[in-house]
């Protein structure tokens, strides 16, 4: 058996978490911004971070306080490894953006480290280790970012299972990121009050419609279900211009639109790439009318998975 390499680099893509109707368990990746992690095997039985490049604001270098470091500490512990890892991160996804920036670092690190093992482990095991990293940023063990990043596309991600959901290949997503930050912990605080049973029932119906529409390639079902009755009404006031951006997407014939992850990014689904690209300018204009600049990407909803790139 060939000796495994002593260094590997992996990338992990940005992600749309929650997808409006699947709070904390439904998400999909996009082709666009990504984080990269270069991992080196070291003889010392520990995890250390040597360098962070790119979007580095407020990212700790202490491994136990960093999502990538915590994930590799978890991997070492789970496998009882005699050696350690050195991490170099290249951050391409903004933090506090609703694009899975904290999750991408730990997933890229795990995928790269897995390539350095004599016997690489399954994505399911990497998924469990990724929880230990992602929870540092979110304050909860949620899989709606790490699941799609590890497996690609649209997935249902619970603490125990990752279930890929088939997505019609023509479905495209627009993701618009305003030049704002919204910390996940702050966005979760507005959700603490109880919800009405009628709203919970309606959200359950909408989730069933969206998933059925994906399985049956039925855009009308997706359109009927892509309406968030629980999270969006409470988080929307935290995002200046959100209602105008969402209206711009719906006016451009989006199947639905909503808050990506904890926000402030906004996503919308369309039945074709041409529709999605037509909508981008109007969605960004809606933010600019509120004095906010933004970046935007168009991608298939069935986005890529994290992968080794070198």
Offer a quick outline of the entry.
It is globular and about 55 Å long. It has helices at residues 67-79, 101-114, 123-138, 146-151, 184-189, 197-216, 219-225, 232-235, 242-251, 273-288; strands at 7-17, 26-42, 47-54, 84-91, 154-157, 162-165, 172-178, 256-259, 266-270, 294-300, 307-308.
Give me the secondary-structure topology.
Blueprint: E1 7-17, E2 26-42, E3 47-54, H1 67-79, E4 84-91, H2 101-114, H3 123-138, H4 146-151, E5 154-157, E6 162-165, E7 172-178, H5 184-189, H6 197-216, H7 219-225, H8 232-235, H9 242-251, E8 256-259, E9 266-270, H10 273-288, E10 294-300, E11 307-308
Parallel strand pairs: 3-4
Antiparallel strand pairs: 1-2, 1-11, 2-4, 2-5, 5-6, 7-9, 7-10, 8-9
């Amino acid at each position: 058996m060939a000796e495994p390499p002593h260094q590997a680099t992996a990338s992990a893509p940005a992600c749309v978490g929650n997808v409006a109707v699947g709070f904390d368990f439904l998400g999909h990746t996009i082709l666009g911004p990504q984080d990269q992690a270069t991992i080196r095997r070291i003889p010392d039985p520990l995890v250390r971070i040597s360098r962070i490049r790119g979007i580095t604001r407020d990212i700790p270098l202490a491994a136990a306080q960093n999502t990538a470091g915590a994930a590799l500490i978890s991997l070492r512990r789970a496998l009882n490894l005699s050696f350690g890892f050195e991490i170099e991160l290249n951050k391409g996804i903004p933090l506090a953006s609703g694009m899975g920036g904290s999750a991408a670092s730990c997933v890229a690190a795990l995928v790269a480290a897995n390539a350095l093992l004599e016997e690489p482990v399954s994505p399911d095991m990497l998924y469990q280790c990724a929880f230990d990293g992602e929870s540092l940023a979110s304050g909860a063990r949620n899989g709606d970012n790490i699941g799609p990043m590890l497996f690609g596309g649209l997935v249902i991600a619970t603490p125990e299972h990752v279930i890929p959901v088939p997505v019609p290949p023509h479905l495209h997503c627009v993701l618009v990121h305003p030049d704002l930050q919204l910390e996940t912990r702050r966005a979760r605080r507005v959700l603490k009050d109880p919800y009405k049973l009628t709203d919970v029932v309606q959200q359950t119906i909408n989730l069933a419609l969206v998933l059925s529409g994906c399985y049956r390639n039925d855009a009308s079902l997706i359109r009927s279900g892509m309406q968030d009755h629980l999270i969006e009404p409470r988080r929307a006031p935290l995002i200046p211009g959100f209602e105008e951006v969402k209206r711009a997407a719906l006016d451009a014939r989006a199947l639905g639109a909503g808050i990506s992850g904890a926000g402030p990014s906004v996503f919308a689904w369309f039945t074709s790439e041409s529709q999605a690209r037509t909508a981008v300018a109007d969605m960004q204009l809606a933010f600019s009318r509120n004095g906010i600049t933004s970046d935007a990407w168009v991608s298939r909803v069935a986005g890529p998975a994290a992968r080794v790139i070198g």
